[in-house]
Amino acid sequence: MIDDFRHKGLRRKMVEFLREQKDISDANVLNAMMVVPRHLFLDSSFLDFAYQDQAFPIGSNQTISSVYTVAFQTELLNVQEKDKILEIGTGSGYQTAVLLELGAEVYSIERHQSLYKKAQLLLNSLHYSCNLFYSDGYLGLQNHAPFDKILVTCGAVDIPPMLLQQLKKGGKMVIPVGFKTQIMTVIYKDFEGNLTKKEYENFRFVPFLRDKS
Ligand code: SAH
After folding, report:
1. Which of 65, 66, 125, 213 is catalytic?
2. 84-88 and 105-110: which strand pairing?
3. pTM more than 0.70
4. Angle at 1 between CA 65 and CA 129, to 5 degrees
5. What are phi and psi of 38, to 5 degrees?
6. What values do phi and psi take at 88, rounded to 5?
7. Which residues have C-beta within 8 Å of that of residue 51, sequence separation ≥ 6?
8. Measured between alpha carbons, how far is 160 from 193 in angstroms, rounded to an integer?
9. Cα 141 off chain centre by
10. Whose CA is nearest to atom 11 of ligand 1?
11. Which residue in 12, 55, 144, 151 has its CB near the most CB atoms, within 10 A?
12. pLDDT of residue 1
């Protein structure tokens, strides 16, 4: 697994693009994305595309989210060191690695067994320590709840009630909601347990599907 000066140069350009053209201003997010070797999360045939702002196939009919999508969702999540975060849709494991790089404790669920296994191997070989699960993210992880933050990386048609339940009071969920395109939505749970919602721009995600594949 090679991460050389050429890849670091491409990452520097990617980060400049996010800061200057996409208004991502959180220095911690930009630093984390500067560190994680995104090209290793794509099949080697896509090496030249790894740092472009596009989604790419990762197998099992799924895609790695574009760099802007990852940066935007991560910035909205406002990750603090030691935050306990539940991610739905491990996919390639790239977003997981960005959260880990920010010092979070990450629990991530994937419904495709082959992706789950591949992400597990890759994250281990990069010495990231995280908790990956092969199960249906719609149900969350009751045994590990509550979570400070929840990040959904697939397009949901509704907000899964179990996820709302597993969000800590004072916590925050970032979830793209919609059928064909999704509105990036942030849900806050206040200290009394009341929910408020804020909506951002439209994105296009692979669907949030029920059950394991
Ligand atoms: N965060 C990923 C994005 C992958 S795309 C990355 O950085 O690569 C979204 C992922 O959500 C897909 O891998 C898809 O299989 C997964 N997914 C869809 N529905 C799911 C569910 N109910 N539970 C867990 N994962 C799900």
Report:
1. 65
2. parallel
3. yes
4. 65
5. -55, -35
6. -105, 120
7. 7, 10, 11, 13, 14, 38, 39, 67
8. 16
9. 17
10. 89
11. 151
12. 84
